[in-house]
Amino acid sequence: MIPSGPGPDGQSRCSWCLATDRYIHYHDHEWGFPVADDRRLFEKISLEAFQSGLSWYTILQKRDHFRAAFAQFDFHQVARFTDTDVQRLLQDAGIVRHRGKIEAVIHNAARAVEMVAQEGSLAAFFWRFAPATPGEGTALLAQTAESQALAKALKQRGWKFVGPTTVYAFMQSMGMVNDHAPDCVTRAAVEQMKKDFQPPR
Question: Is 114 in the active site?
């Protein structure tokens, strides 16, 4: 069972978010809510790649810096980044200065441009991998059959830093699954939005 605990207002929330107000705000207003905007999706999958080996809180603290450094994650712009941009980013203390991850995001931006040309949108592609019968909020999973399938499909299209664990975290973040604890105060809001949400085709 996904662990939960009381927040500052006394209402139950997923226990992972209770350490700081920043975490709580992200949990209450973003995590698990369905997303169809391509720029936001590219941001989310890129930040999950940067998070690999680090805490999500580190990424959340630096998110505004990441946005400024990566052209607000407009992948059409990021795809045109050059070696000069890589050097600039490696000197930017406001982000995670990992050459492999920086280069992967630029590389993936070009793959994202290709995907939009082929599929119509990133959202249309990603949402095909939503579980038909999700077993959500009941277990602490690192990856699922769907995240393995999406990771494989992305790798076949040339994407980097998209292993099944990273991809499952992305699926949780973008609302493809609702992994809020069963008694979490935000779970019902996510469920309602998912009911009203029409996945892009």
Answer: no
159 is catalytic: no
Under DSSP, the state recorded for 161 is: S
Q: Is residue 56 among the annotated active site residues?
A: yes
Query: From first to last of its 201 residues, what are the pLDDT tens digits of the chain?
Result: 578 989 999 999 999 999 999 999 999 999 999 999 999 999 999 999 999 889 999 999 999 999 999 999 999 999 999 999 999 999 999 999 999 999 999 999 999 999 999 999 999 999 999 998 655 544 567 899 999 999 999 999 999 999 999 999 999 999 999 999 999 999 999 999 999 999 888
In contact, 40 and 67? CB cutoff 8 Å: no
Of the residues 16, 30, 56, 57, which is catalytic? 56
Backbone phi and psi for residue 173, each to the nearest 5 degrees, phi listed first = -65, -40
User: What six digits make up the tokens of 141?
Assistant: 């999973």
Active-site entry in 48, 127, 136, 168:
48
> Phi and psi dihedrals of 171, rounded to 5?
-65, -40
The SS3 of residue 113 is: helix
In three-state secondary structure terms, 149 is helix
Q: In terms of Cα–Cα distance, which of 131, 173, 170 is closest to 151?
A: 170
Of the residues 16, 26, 30, 119, which is catalytic?
Answer: 26
Predicted TM-score of the model (pTM): 0.94
- Residue of 159, 127, 161, 160 lying closest to 146 (CA atoms): 127
Ordered alpha helix ranges (H), 30-74: 38-51, 56-69
